[in-house]
Specification:
Layout: E1 4-5, E2 8-9, H1 18-33, H2 37-44, E3 48-57, E4 63-74, E5 80-87, H3 92-108, E6 114-121, H4 129-143, E7 152-156, H5 162-176, H6 200-216, E8 224-228, H7 232-244, E9 247-253, E10 256-259, H8 266-274, E11 286-288, H9 290-293, E12 300-303, E13 322-324, H10 333-341, E14 345-347, H11 349-352, H12 355-369, H13 375-400, H14 404-423
Parallel strand pairs: 5-6, 5-7, 8-9, 8-12, 12-13, 13-14
Antiparallel strand pairs: 1-2, 3-4, 4-6, 9-10, 10-11
Helix pairs in contact: 1-3, 1-14, 3-14, 4-5, 6-7, 6-12, 6-13, 7-8, 12-13, 13-14
C-alpha cells in the first residue's frame, strides 16, 4: 500500500519483478497440468504491450509528459478486460503481471473475457480536476488503437472511478462518431453503468470471506477483521462484513491506520475518509502504521491496498487465521510458503476480488443488449458466481492437497489451455 511513516511516503516493497512473481505462480499450475513447452510460452507471454508517452498542459501553462501503458495478456477466451490505475508505482512490469492475473480471474469465474490492464504513472492527488481530465482524455486517445467493446474493455482500478471512465467513454465515442457505452465498465448509471458495480469487488470479498470462515468454522459474530486499504474495495468489504456480524478492529489508508479492539464503525470511517480525513488521525482508536496493522491479532486479514504487502519479512508475524486478498498480488511467494507452513488459510486474489469483473461483465452484457437489471438481480448473480467458484476451488484444493491459490490457478489455466487448443494456431 502507498502509505506514510514518520511523514515519509512508504516506498514500493523491494520484492523484485512482479511479473516474475506472476509467472512463478503460473508455473505451479503448468507443472500440475503437465503442459508442453509451446503452451507454456503462450501462457507466459503477453499478446500485446503498448507504452505511450504523451504531453499534458498543466494549469500553470507548463507542459508535462506522462508515461502510460495498456497490456493485453491473453485473449483466447474473449476480449481483454482489466482496469486502469493512476499511481506513482505504475510501470510496465507491474501492468504485465496485473494483466496476467486478470486472465486467470476471468477464466476462474468462467466469464468470456481475456486479461488486460492499463495505467499511468502519476500522483492523481496532486492534479486538479482539469489536469486529471486532460490526462485521461489524452491517454484514452493514445490507447484507442487497442480498446473497444469486442477488443479490450477498461474499468476502474486504483485511483480511478466512474468519472474517469466517463471521460474515456466520451473520448472514444467522439473519435468514432457515436455513443459507445460498452467500451468501458464501471461508468455512471447515466451513461449505461450498472447498479451494484461500485460495491461489487468489496461484496465479492465479503462473500469469499464468509465462505472461508464457514469452512474454517470461525464464528462470524464478533469475528475480528483488519482491513489494509480503506478505498473502494476495503471500505465496502468492511461495511458488509460489519453488517454480517463481524467486528472491524482496524483499518488503514495511505497515511497509516487506526486500531480499536472494541470495534470501529465502518460507515463513520467512510464518512471521515469522504470528508478528506486521514485514518491515522481518526480519533476513535489508536493510530498505527500499515506495517503494524498487518500483524494485529484478528481472525480475518483483508489486504485491499497494493501488491507485495505480505512478504517474507512480515508473514511470520501475521496473527490472522484467514487472509482474503482484496488487492491484486498482495502476497509474495515467500509469504505464501510461510502461511502454508503456519496453516493460515489464504483466499487468493483471482477468487477473492473477482466480484468487480463479474459485475463488469454483467454491465457489458446489459450495454450490448440495452436491457438493464435491477440491483437484486445483479447481487444475486454475483452471489451465485462467487459461491460456485469458491466451492470449485475449495474442492480442487482438498482433492489434490494443495493451497487455494494453486487450485484456483490450475482451474483457470486449464480453461485457457482448453480454449487455446480448441481454437488452434492461426494460420
Amino acid at each position: 500500500m502507498d502509505g506514510e511513516q514518520s511523514g515519509a511516503v512508504l516506498e514500493r516493497p523491494e520484492t523484485g519483478s512482479l511479473y516474475q512473481v506472476a509467472v512463478e505462480q503460473l508455473r505451479v499450475a503448468e507443472d500440475a497440468l503437465g503442459l508442453d513447452r509451446g503452451m507454456r510460452e503462450i501462457l507466459e507471454s503477453c499478446k500485446a504491450e503498448l507504452t505511450v508517452r504523451f504531453p499534458v498542459k498543466m494549469d500553470d501553462g507548463y507542459i508535462r509528459v506522462f508515461e502510460g501503458y495498456r497490456v493485453q495478456h491473453n485473449m483466447a477466451r474473449g476480449p481483454g478486460k482489466g482496469g486502469i490505475r493512476y499511481h506513482p508505482w505504475v510501470e510496465l512490469d507491474e501492468i504485465r503481471a496485473l494483466a496476467m492475473w486478470m486472465t486467470w480471474k476471468c477464466a476462474l469465474m468462467d466469464i468470456p473475457f481475456g486479461g488486460a490492464k492499463g495505467g499511468v504513472a502519476c500522483q492523481p492527488k496532486e492534479l486538479s480536476e482539469r489536469e486529471l481530465e486532460h490526462l485521461t482524455r489524452r491517454y484514452a486517445s493514445e490507447i484507442s488503437i487497442l480498446i473497444g467493446a469486442d477488443r479490450d474493455i477498461p474499468a476502474p482500478d486504483v485511483n480511478t472511478d466512474a468519472r474517469i471512465m466517463a471521460w474515456i467513454l466520451d473520448t472514444i465515442s467522439m473519435h468514432r462518431g457515436h455513443l459507445s457505452p460498452e467500451v468501458v465498465t464501471g461508468k455512471p448509471l447515466s451513461l449505461g453503468g450498472t447498479v451494484g458495480r461500485v460495491e461489487a469487488t468489496g461484496r465479492g470479498v465479503m462473500i469469499a470471506a464468509l465462505k472461508a470462515m464457514e469452512h474454517l468454522r470461525i464464528p462470524v459474530e464478533g469475528a475480528r477483521v483488519v482491513v489494509q486499504g480503506y478505498g473502494n474495495v476495503g471500505s465496502h468489504a468492511a461495511r458488509l462484513l460489519g453488517e454480517a456480524g463481524c467486528r472491524i478492529v482496524a483499518a488503514s489508508d495511505s497515511s497509516g491506520g487506526v486500531y480499536n479492539p472494541g470495534g470501529l464503525d465502518p460507515e463513520k470511517m467512510g464518512e471521515f475518509k469522504g470528508s478528506g480525513g486521514r485514518l491515522v488521525e481518526y480519533g476513535e482508536g489508536e493510530p498505527l502504521t500499515n506495517d503494524e496493522l498487518l500483524t494485529l491479532p484478528c481472525e480475518v486479514l483483508i489486504p485491499a491496498a497494493m501488491e507485495s504487502q505480505l512478504t517474507g519479512r512480515n508473514a511470520h508475524l501475521v496473527q490472522a487465521r484467514l487472509v482474503v486478498e482484496g488487492a491484486n498480488g498482495p502476497t509474495t511467494p515467500e509469504a505464501d510458503m510461510i502461511f502454508q507452513e503456519r496453516d493460515i488459510f489464504v483466499v487468493p486474489d483471482i477468487l477473492a476480488n473477482a466480484g468487480g469483473v463479474v459485475v463488469s461483465y454483467l454491465e457489458w452484457v446489459q450495454d450490448r443488449q440495452r436491457y438493464f437489471l435491477e440491483l437484486e438481480e445483479v447481487d444475486s448473480k454475483l452471489d451465485k458466481l462467487m459461491k460456485r467458484s469458491f466451492a470449485q476451488v475449495l474442492d480442487a484444493a482438498q482433492q489434490a492437497g494443495i493451497t487455494m491459490r494453486a487450485a484456483a490457478l490450475t482451474l483457470a489455466v486449464r480453461r485457457v489451455v482448453e480454449t487455446t487448443r480448441d481454437r488452434g494456431i492461426y494460420p
